[in-house]
Amino acid sequence: MATYQTDQIRNVAILGHGGSGKTSLVEALLHKTGVINRAGRVEDGATVSDWDAEEQRRGISINLSVAPVEFEETKINLIDTPGYIDFVGEVISALHVAEAGLMLVDAVAGAEVGTELAWNRLDELNKPRIVFINRMGRENASFEKAIDSLREAFPDSNIVPFQLPMGQGEGFKGVVSLVTGKAYEGSAPKEVPVPADMQEAVAAAQVALVEAAAEADDDLIMKYFDGEELTPEEVRRGLHRGVRSGAIVPVYCGSALSDIGLERLLKAMRRYVPAPNERMVEAFLGDDSVEILADSNATPSAAVFKTIIDRYVGRMNYIRVFSGTIKKDANLVNSRTGESHRIASLNSVRGKDLHGVDHLVAGDIGVVTKIDDLLTGDSLTSENEPLTVAPPAYPRPLYSVAVTPATKADSAKLGQSLQALVEEDPTLKVQNISATKQNVLQGMGESHVDVAIRRLDQKFGVSVDTAVPKVPYQETISRSGQAQYRHKKQTGGAGQFAEVHMRVEPLERGDGFQYASEVFGGAISNVFLPSIEKGVKQVLDIGFIAGFPVVDVKAVVFDGKEHPVDSKDIAFQTAGREAFRAAMEQAGPVLLEPIYQIDVTVPDAYMGDIMGDFNTRRGRVLGMEQKGNRTIIKALAPLAEIMRYGTDLRSMTQGRGIYTIEFDHYDPVPLHLTDDIIIASKREAEEE
């Protein structure tokens, strides 16, 4: 591959709904530009992008994949992303390092759920996009209906066709460029006259195109309003400015499978996607926020946006150079750890293939290997001027499974293997829940977690059994209560004696446990007070009602007795434990359950169904807000009722709803449910 400067590089994230043809398009562009001799098929597991065994088994993209192509003295780094919502972390990582998105839309289906989600991400990041209406050769394909669906889904966006198709369905044979006014036919496009039956439609569409160009430039709009005709150069300038600023969303069309419209698409990416040095990026110099530009002569700074741990290659960290030039054998600092590392292996990447390079300039993408403590989100930078690129924010996991090792051999490797999974994927989390004594693997959805479980087996040789996680209930009291307990044991030798009088009081939620003494007059020696506390804490861990941790309780020792010979540490531990149990029984013990705030975003048509569903889940709607043609419903709901909410939401909304959850607080479990929870907990304890 030739050497490219920063202004000759384009980084484009390929986005869209699952099945819209993203991977097939990347494959077609690789073939079009001569990178590969033959375009592979997703169905055969033979594409450059979907090289992972699990992707090939499922027939869908799971990981982002980098596939650079060269076109007209420009290097275009295509970043193929999954369309399935469970793998949204890969989309976020791709958009972190791309200057723009190429949005694929199926010519039959139009704008779909995945289109909306990716579009909203681009809006949040204020990044431009190009729309490519794919599969124009399919039966029932309709360019006009696809455009209408986009305008309906995104009414605030200025969606402007830059092309019109020549024919649709089986009759699709080429495109008419509204910018040049010329028609291009076939896969090796040759210029042909604009069909007579299209000339009126082309003229009308060109008027809309010129208006969009004029609106994007203050000088041009004044000239346009004065009735002067814009030159082709002025139109291009206006379009260029409008697309790169996001004021115009250009629409192209074609067919990846039949290689029609792809050359014009490559030209569009070269012209309209900003070069890396045309956008400022947020970074930190120490605690100060700064903006950096992709200048190859500046201080080196690169961000890790994907990590793969391979049993043969080792750790592979995908990096995007945001400033300076990263050179092989250079020493760079991990800004998170402060550790210096020699860049012994620096590579360009295409799919799974790595090719050693001497350097990567600002704006380019590559892979460094064998740096063990480098994680996704880390920055590699200069020791003298440590620039940390602001990492992207990943969503909280939504779906959890409890995992237990299948065998003793698996048990020895489980912890390390789970940690490796989390290091590869920032949207995976692992928690050890002390309240339920479970290891819980959390991800974005059922498929996401299922892929992680399979990787545990395939990559790390660890088999696990899975189950729905237990709800981490807690126990507390509703009022004050007191009791006393005398422990007396005589076994022929030294005896044991302790008497403890204790009061328990409820605390505010989140205050935990407090211990105090009100003993006066030496009824209990100070040396035994820690022993009593130790006994109480034994109950805190194992619970009183159903085996869950006790929280938000204050235990006060106010009287007691001791024996000059038989009183000792173990006696007061026992007396303290039993006095606490007895006092708890008098204090109205209750179970607490975790309550989560859940924000559900759905099309307006599904709002009533979602509201009604929350009523059946013991939920409480806090409010609603409008965002475009979608409603965001904010509610509180018990974790026990939303363990598998994602599956139900997809069913209720035909896959068009999304949600986020965040822990809010603990509330008492309704009395009519408490008995069932206690019975189930005791049954589980007996089975163990």
Question: Can you walk me through this structure?
Answer:
The protein has 688 residues and is an alpha+beta fold. The chain folds into 5 domains: 9-191 and 247-274, Rossmann fold; 281-389, Translation factors (Elongation Factor Tu (Ef-tu), domain 3); 399-470, Alpha-Beta Plaits, CATH 3.30.70; 475-587, Ribosomal Protein S5, domain 2 (2-Layer Sandwich); 594-673, Alpha-Beta Plaits, CATH 3.30.70.240. It is 29% helix and 32% strand. The protein has 16 helices and 37 strands. An 8-stranded antiparallel beta sheet has the order 18-17-23-14-15-22-19-20. Strands 2-3-1-4-5-11-6 form a 7-stranded mixed beta sheet, with helices on both faces. Strands 29, 34, 35, 36 and 37 form a 5-stranded antiparallel beta sheet that branches. The longest helix is centred in the N-terminal third of the chain and has 17 residues, at 199-215. The chain is elongated, with a radius of gyration of 32 Å. The mean pLDDT is 92.
Please provide a brief summary of the model:
By secondary structure, the protein is an alpha+beta fold. It has five domains: 9-191 and 247-274, P-loop containing nucleotide triphosphate hydrolases (Rossmann fold, 3-Layer(aba) Sandwich); 281-389, Beta Barrel (Elongation Factor Tu (Ef-tu), domain 3), CATH 2.40.30.10; 399-470, Alpha-Beta Plaits; 475-587, Ribosomal Protein S5, domain 2, CATH 3.30.230; 594-673, Alpha-Beta Plaits.
